Structure formats: C-alpha cells, structure tokens
C-alpha cells in the first residue's frame, strides 16, 4: 500500500511540474511601439516630423468664396483686371470660388536648412495649377515664384500691374539692418536662343529696416527687350496702424516686366505709378484700409498727352472666427484717355465681398 501511494504521489507531482512548465512556455507578445507625430519647432509653427525621417512638413491652404461687382460707364476698348476695368459699357456681378493648397518642407543639413514649397491653386471648376514651386538653401532660391517685385502695399487699391512671377534663380541676404538680393528671371523658361539672343531679365533689391520703419528699392531690366525700371516702397508704423507707400517708374518700353501693365485703352507702355495706403487696426478683429493710387502711361502718338488713371477706395478686413476672415473692398476709378482725336474717358467701380477659411 505504501508503494502504491508513493507511486501515485510521484505521478501527481510529475503532472503538476509538467503543467507548470507548459504554462511558463506561453509567451504573450508585447504591443509594438507607436511613433507619434513630433512637432518640429526648429522649422516654425505648423511643422511636424514625417514619421521615420528627419524632414519636417507643413500643410496649409485656404478656401475662398467671393461676390464681385464691376462697372464701366465709358465703353473702354479692352478689359484689364489689374486696373479693375471691364470690357464694355455695363455693370456686372458674379460669384467665384478659389482654393489653395500648399506643402512646405524643412530639412536640417550640413549646409544649413533645405526648404521646399509647392503651392497649388485653382478657380472652382477649373484645372489645378502648380502656381508656385521653389527650393531654398544657403541664401539661394530657385523655381517659379514671386520675386522682389511681388511687394504690394496694404489694401486693395494698389496695383502697378508689373509681372512679378518668373522662373528664377535668386540670392538674398542680410547684414544687420541692411537686406540685399539679386535674381535672374526667365518669363517662359527660355533664357537664350540663337535667333533672338537674350530672353531673360534681372532684378536687384536693397532694403533697410530700423524699428517701425522699413524701405526697399528694387530695380528690374529685360536684356532681350532692353528696357527696365525701378520700384521704391516704404512702410512705417504710425498711430493705430501702418502707413505704406510705393512708387514705380519704367522706361518707354514694353518688356517681360511691364507687358501686363500697358494702358487699357491703347496699349501704351507704363510710365509711373504712385500709391499710398493706411491700415488702421480699429480693433483686434477689424482693420480698415483706405488707399489711393495714380498711374500714367506713355502716349502712343506724337504730341498726345499720356493716358492717366486715378483710383481711390477702402478695404475692410474682419476676423469673423478663428481661421475665418471676411474682406470687403470698394474701389472707384477714373480713366483719362490722352488720345485727343478719339477720347475714351471712363469711370467705374470694382468691388467685392470675400469669405476665406484658412488652415
């Protein structure tokens, strides 16, 4: 009996040990580590690291809906959106929808940050255009983008009409309060051909900033058309807002920079433009910006006075909510034709109400 009991006890102990070892052999897998998106403070607000890389990415853009009104009581020969002129003796009202989507990247490297920027824009119902593409490093910026001439002033009354977006190689830098830069610009990507020679232009800019005052002088020259000009701009914080002014002068020559700024009546080359605006911060949400501009174009006939036009208006910007803005613009223009034989004097309005949500 003792032997039987001993054998039964040994068997039970063996089963228990075997069961314990089998239980120990069960392995529960640990959960995999999840790599959360990290904020990239070095690149600026809105950037985050692309998981698995040291490149930072930013996604931004806006959606816009606009109600527009134009009028022309003089029957101009042609339309010119830069000057706010329609193509007939009539008034018009319309709706438009526009969207923009942008991707920005930032990567630190042994030669400093390397940045890229892609901007897509489209009117509603139309094809999407790659409106801006550029890459920047060590003070150089290359691509298709608005350069030094993309330097308007506050409000919606200003427009010197100059073309400011090209395929460019641009260098810019600073030295204390002084900023400087230069670029080589190609209108359609072609720089030179054996028949026409040079087909590029150049712009250069010198700037100065001291406290509440900033000023720039920008020169431009088209080597193919042998014509250019200069733009001066100044900005100063005054009282409750910012006072800005810009002046433009160009040679009697239609070139890659002034080709979209010709007279809306007879195509005369741009001569000079003077503009001023004051953006008054009425409250944290509301900014009111009155503005005035005056333009003159070279005459196209011997002895004819120059075509001239003045424009006055006001723009209201209101922050309706976070990332939602409302802009209202009312502009009145008066065009005086210098061709004494067949005057095309005209006046009109160019107004809009815009809703824009940004992200």
- The CATH topology corresponds to Porin
- Taken together, the total number of domains comes to 1
The CATH class label is Mainly Beta
Spatial separation of the terminal alpha carbons = 87 Å
CATH architecture: Beta Barrel
Largest sheet: 16 strands, antiparallel, barrel
Rg result: 32 Å
What's the β-strand tally?
Answer: 19
How big a fraction of the residues is strand? over 45%
The CATH homologous superfamily is termed Porin
In words, what does this structure look like?
The chain has one domain (40-358): Porin (Beta Barrel), CATH 2.40.160. Helix content is 6%, strand content 55%. Residues 10-15 have low confidence and may be disordered. By secondary structure, it is mostly beta strands. The longest helix has 23 residues, at 2-24. A hairpin with a 2-residue loop joins strand 13 (227-238) and strand 14 (241-250). It has one helix spanning 2-24, and strands spanning 48-49, 55-72, 90-107, 114-123, 129-137, 140-146, 165-175, 178-186, 192-193, 197-198, 200-210, 213-222, 227-238, 241-250, 270-281, 286-297, 307-321, 324-336, 346-358.
Please outline the helices and strands:
Layout: H1 2-24, E1 48-49, E2 55-72, E3 90-107, E4 114-123, E5 129-137, E6 140-146, E7 165-175, E8 178-186, E9 192-193, E10 197-198, E11 200-210, E12 213-222, E13 227-238, E14 241-250, E15 270-281, E16 286-297, E17 307-321, E18 324-336, E19 346-358
Antiparallel strand pairs: 1-2, 2-3, 2-19, 3-4, 4-5, 5-6, 6-7, 7-8, 8-11, 9-10, 11-12, 12-13, 13-14, 14-15, 15-16, 16-17, 17-18, 18-19
